[in-house]
Design a protein that fits this description.
Layout: E1 17-18, E2 22-23, E3 38-39, E4 43-44, E5 59-60, E6 64-65, E7 80-81, E8 85-86, E9 101-102, E10 106-107, E11 122-123, E12 127-128, E13 143-144, E14 148-149, E15 164-165, E16 169-170
Parallel strand pairs: 1-3, 2-4, 3-5, 4-6, 5-7, 6-8, 8-10, 9-11, 10-12, 11-13, 12-14, 13-15, 14-16
Length: 171
């Protein structure tokens, strides 16, 4: 289902089940998603400027793209994403929920409002923290399956002793 660029769309009706991919890119007036939304593929929400939060219990079988959702402030504690999670450019995002696990890559580049990451964060692929200028340290128990990217971030001091990175660290 492709609703890309529907600038007057403010919400979706309840009961929406998408068998494959849902495209809501650049729906600049989109404010909310229904609590019972089911996406059995990928969910593309990049450029949805008024979207401040996602519904509790949201499950996306594939990737979730929230790139440049500048109004996004938080993610639900029980968010389930089957692949990669794109949050780059979400400048109002302040934190991630405890217990978050991302099977693929986690993109947090230019999340300038992000001040902390939850302890025990697990990322199966790469973790991109480039230009996260509000982030001053990494949490205990951080696990990254592949590479950790910290270029342009203000991560100060030593990295946590229990940090596990399967690939390289790029500073």
């Amino acid at each position: 289902l492709d609703l890309t660029g529907c600038t007057s769309l403010k919400s979706l009706p309840s009961g929406v089940v998408v068998g494959r991919n849902l495209y809501l890119r650049d729906c600049k007036s989109l404010e909310s998603l229904p609590a019972d939304l089911e996406v059995n593929g990928n969910l593309y929400l990049s450029g949805c400027l008024r979207l401040e939060s996602l519904p509790a219990g949201l499950k996306v079988a594939g990737l979730l793209d929230l790139t440049d959702c500048t109004g996004l402030k938080s993610l639900p504690a029980d968010l389930a994403v089957g692949a990669s999670l794109y949050l780059s450019g979400c400048t109002s995002l302040e934190s991630l929920p405890a217990g978050l696990e991302v099977r693929g890559n986690l993109y947090l580049t230019q999340c300038t409002g992000l001040e902390s990451l939850p302890a025990g964060l697990k990322v199966g692929g790469n973790l991109y923290l480039n230009r996260c200028t509000g982030l001053k340290s990494l949490p205990a128990g951080l696990e990254v399956g592949r590479n950790l990217y910290l270029r342009g971030s203000d991560i100060l001091g030593e990295l946590p002793q229990d940090l596990r990175v399967g690939g390289k660290i790029y500073r």
